[in-house]
Specification:
309 residues, 7-stranded parallel β-sheet, 17% strand
Length: 309
């Protein structure tokens, strides 16, 4: 089969999924935009085993009009004539444009979703619109059971909902983390990392619950200092927090208040090829979000062989 898969912009995860899918069928990977303001991933320029098409190579499609997006999506899909089209959700202008093309051409549309009912308060009129859109799709690919349950509530027959959307390249993280551990001392010195540490990785936004994480870490260090356990065996670990975002300065202020600057490390946002260094040298991974559609960092940490909290 020839399947077109649409994403807003290809990041490392989209690229890995498309490469894996291309081993099973002919894949046309369509990215709407070359750039985006949402994520800081570097653009992937390496050769791919699937055909790659960028509809807006000079910028972010979200600044384009609905008509312009519809025109480019129509031209692309009409030229490619796929047997099916996988679309990212039900709200993006590009996804809706692709769905319209599918309806006109009588091509099956597969909605890709990681939304669950408890993500946020739901309103009746919005749910009615979603139900109408989902009803136009032939099948769904979702991350986990809560996502599948939500699609079923929106009217998608359960037998047409499939799991496996939220995946990472397990081999990449497992192999690279093992390589890092094989030269542990040299890599640790090069990156200035502590001997033992918890690792967390998140955008610095409210729902990631990082203020609570820092408070919990401060409590952990306090308990460690008053414990009767031998300090040589149970010296408290440091915390390495990867990422960046609008709450960075506020988090820095909290570190000062809690007197944690010597023990909490903020290396900033790290690109895909740098991540195995931090996973490979960590002792455990922490994910503290109050709500999360999925959290691919958990996949990465497990693939790297880390226990996850």
């Amino acid at each position: 089969m020839k399947i077109a898969v649409i994403f807003h912009r290809f990041g490392p995860y989209h690229f890995a999924r498309l490469e894996a899918a291309a081993q099973r069928c002919e894949i046309i990977g369509i990215e709407l935009a070359a750039e985006t303001r949402e994520y800081a991933w570097s653009r992937i320029n390496r050769p791919a085993s699937f055909e790659r098409i960028t509809l807006f190579p000079d910028g972010d499609s979200r600044s384009a009009s609905k008509d312009e997006i519809q025109t480019r999506v129509n031209e692309c899909l009409s030229a490619q004539r796929p047997d099916a089209v996988a679309i990212p959700g039900w709200s993006d202008k590009g996804a809706l444009a692709a769905l319209q093309w599918c309806i006109r051409s009588q091509t099956p549309a597969v909605v890709m979703s990681e939304s669950s009912e408890i993500d946020e308060p739901r309103t009746r009129w919005k749910e009615w619109i979603k139900r109408a859109i989902v009803g136009l799709c032939s099948a769904a690919l979702v991350g986990g059971r809560t996502h599948a349950d939500y699609l079923a509530r929106l009217g998608m027959p359960a037998e047409r909902v499939f799991l496996g959307y939220d995946a990472v390249d397990n081999g990449y993280f497992g192999d690279r983390a093992a390589e890092v551990r094989g030269q542990r001392s040299e890599v640790r010195k090069k990156h200035g990392l502590p001997e033992n540490y918890f690792l967390a990785s998140a955008r610095f936004i409210e729902k990631k619950n990082l203020f609570r994480l820092l408070q919990a870490y401060a409590n952990y260090r306090k308990l460690s200092s008053i414990s009767n356990l031998p300090s040589t065996n149970f010296a408290p670990w440091d915390l390495v927090l990867l990422g960046d975002g609008p709450l960075r300065e506020t988090l820095n202020s909290q570190l000062s208040t809690l007197n944690l600057h010597a023990h909490v490390h903020l290396p900033g946002f790290k690109q895909y090829d740098e991540l195995p260094v931090y996973y490979g040298l960590a002792d455990a991974f922490i994910h503290a979000s109050t709500t999360e559609q999925w959290g691919l960092v958990v996949n990465e940490a497990m693939a790297s062989g880390l226990p996850v909290l």
